Amino acid sequence: TNHQEWQVCLVSVGVLGDVCRAVEDAVGPYCDRVMGILLANLQSDAVHRNIKPHILSSFGDIALAINDHFEAYLPHVLTMLSSAQALSVQQQQAAEEDFFDYNNQLRNGILEAYSGVLNGMTREKADQHLAGPAPGIVDFIEYVFNDKVNMDPNVTKTAVALLGDLAVNLTGVGQLFAQKPTVVAFVRDAEQSADGRLADQAEWANNVITKAMSTA
Questions:
Q1: Are residues 183 and 165 in contact, defined by beta-carbon separation less than 8 angstroms?
Q2: Which of 45, 83, 118, 177 gives a 20 to 30 Å CA spacing to 208?
Q3: What pLDDT sits at residue 33?
Q4: What's the gap between Cα 46 and its chain centre?
Q5: In which element (H, E) is residue 63 found?
């Protein structure tokens, strides 16, 4: 890999997502090698930082393609996502303008990865592997929602979608939402957005969150 040609690498990661969507589980035999490369690039200081959020997103694409077979990679992926969340919060607290755009890319990559895993795996596997991280995921989304200065519309949509995915795909998550009234209120407020796509996403998310809370 030519790490200097980071824009080529960026396109390559995008193509990987396209391939996963096109061939679905036929990508399975190649995943050990592909995931090894992606995880190594995430940890490499030689890789341009702008590539790394897209690598995180690609984990979601791969999970959607290979479903429960993604379980083999989850321990490493969850560790990487947790580290990325910590880095995002750290950058938000530093409030350095140079990092605003990158931090929103990072947030989007994290959120898309979790959504892909939740939607790709069966409920049984999602409960097994994501029930533990779920409170930290919702805490992270709450942190993003509270960043009024650097709020990005695309991140807001991805975050609202992930909250809905959590409500649909995890057992017993209603109690978690009941403990986070500000997050639930944000989703309800987003239903009034002038952005039709966000409003629709928020309406769906609010409905499934309300259902999850009613059965908590």
A1: no
A2: 83
A3: 86
A4: 24
A5: helix 52-66
Q: What pLDDT was estimated at residue 11?
A: 61
Q: Give me 24's structure tokens.
A: 């679905």
Query: What was the pLDDT predicted at 178?
Result: 94
Residues 6 or more apart whose CB falls under 8 angstroms from that of 117 comprise 59, 60, 63, 70, 74, 77, 126, 130
For residue 211, the Cα-to-chain-centroid distance in whole angstroms is: 22
Task: Tell me the pTM.
Answer: 0.91
Q: Which two tokens stand for residue 114?
A: 């979790």
d(CA 184, CA 142): 10
Distance between CA atoms of residues 57 and 16, nearest Å: 11
- Whether 2 shows a pLDDT value over 70: the answer reads no
Strands (E), 113-164: none
Q: Which amino acid is at 146?
A: N
Rounded to the nearest integer, the mean pLDDT of the chain is 88
Q: What is the DSSP letter of 152?
A: -
**Contact yes or no for 216/178 (Cβ under 8 A):** yes
| Contact between 119 and 64 (Cβ < 8 Å) | yes
Q: How confident is the model over 80-135, as pLDDT tens digits?
A: 999 999 999 988 777 677 788 899 999 999 999 999 999 999 999 999 999 999 99
Tell me 73's DSSP state: G
